[in-house]
Write a structure and sequence with these properties.
Belongs to the binding-protein-dependent transport system permease family. LivHM subfamily. The protein is mainly α and about 300 residues long. It is built from eleven helices and four strands. α1 crosses α9.
Amino acid sequence: MLLVQQLVNSIMLGSVYVTVAVAFTLTIGILNFLNFTIPTLFMLAGMMGWALSYYGLPFGLSGPMPWPLALAAGVVLAILASLLVERFTFRYLKTRYGDSTEHAIPLVSSLGFLLILENLVRIGYGTEERRFAGPDADLTLNVGGLFIRVPQLISLFVTVLIVIFLTMLIRRTRIGRGLRAIAENPDAANILGVDTKRVVPVVFMLTGLLCGLAGALFAVNYGEVSPLMGEDIGTKAIAGMVIGGLGSIWGAVIGGLIVGVLELMTVHFFGADTVQVVVWGALLLTLIAYPSGLLGHNAIGKGKL
């Protein structure tokens, strides 16, 4: 029964990795761009949710906010920060240097944003873990001897809804057709009338939304936040994305769940110190057997969503 309980917990944890892995997949699959700010956006939503629920708005504009409202504000802030990254890593640099998707300038500039935002939060609130005061009631269900927390169940449900929504958005809407056109060939998309200045920000808005929701759900599920919380989640999400297959949304789902299961099963049998070895060992073995990942494609980042 304990092993089954750990399996249930691993699926719940994997849902967080799935959401962040899908965010990575969007930028890889459409823009051919590894966005290093994604872990920071995840952290930003959680930390700002805690700060607003504990201190309120800055400059005494409000007292401590109810935790749902504080987390909602944290998600909005993550979206705004993601749009800021788009403005200076893509729009400005592409205008100045040409097709910035073909070299390292956006990647390095996104790394700069990661360090700036993370260190601003560390300067403001320190590096210690903070207790997030979420729901007061005991929201735990006993299902046949298995204990499932309601926030974790909601997190899994929200993750499934997000993936279905993104799939339908990309496959069945005008914006989705524009995104797929940019993924296939940005220059041809421009010739055919796709307004990249309007369509590309949608990718960053979705990225900020995904990371913000993941950070908010993580804060509620595990009750702790810190300025460093994005680093471990980000690396595990990248591993899940690669295992599942670069550029595949459903591959990111499968990969994120696999990483969640591997992590908690490794902790259960071997201890926490061996988690990174097992997760990244699984990634290397997957790449040896399936160089494109389980559901990936040979043409990485070229419209294979």
